[in-house]
Specification:
elongated, DNA-binding, alpha+beta, homodimer, 124 residues, three-stranded antiparallel beta sheet
Amino acid sequence: MQETENAPVITGDHRELLDQLLDKWSLHVLDQLCEQGALRFNELRRAIPTITQKSLTSTLRRLERNGMIDRVVLSDRPVAVEYRIAPVGHSLQELIDALLRWTTTHLPDVRLARERFDAEFEEK
Amino acid sequence: MQETENAPVITGDHRELLDQLLDKWSLHVLDQLCEQGALRFNELRRAIPTITQKSLTSTLRRLERNGMIDRVVLSDRPVAVEYRIAPVGHSLQELIDALLRWTTTHLPDVRLARERFDAEFEEK
DNA sequence: CCGCATCCTGCACGATACTG
DNA sequence: CAGTATCGTGCAGGATGCGG
């Protein structure tokens, strides 16, 4: 019978982790690091022009804490740091790509749906 | 030929849409509706006990506006409404499941990484 | 049963200035 | 170059009460 198939119940832990990986900036950072393998702090800033320095810092810290990326000190004087995608983080890449592909594919549908919804709402 | 493979550049539109689909509650709602097909308002409340009525309402509106779900009026007196997963929304199910499976699988890794990170931070 | 209207609070994020 | 420190603010989301 149906057995609810594989019952993907969403626990608080799931939600918390997803919040930390799919938030406003993490996706950008992960995406960049997955593609480039490793990037310097300011290279990331340039790759994601709209991100604030503060946000980039906190995003990197969070991703590092969750084991998604590694912070590698290249030298002390001058200070040089590199951020590398970690194995666990890399396992996310295909998922992220799938997410982006889905949005790209269905963006037209969504736009149409929105127009319809808004128009219908306008009538009243 | 690296060609950056399929270059999944993240635009503002991507980000906005993902924000509306992967936010705190949408995932729960979509997940429920995908599994059950259709649910009443209060059935959803019971299925997601921690959600507020206000949040459920706004989440449902947003998902409806984006074409992910359909709001079906069953009767007027007494008021009876049903929310059904729409085709576009259904195409998200496997993606959501993949997301949940990934977190379930890698949660141990993440926990370990966090402990290490926090411990290392403690030392200083 | 299915919502809408308000009030309220935290906190995510931006802007800006400073440091080794 | 790679950050830390501080201030200001919008707004998501909880709590509560009312209404058809």
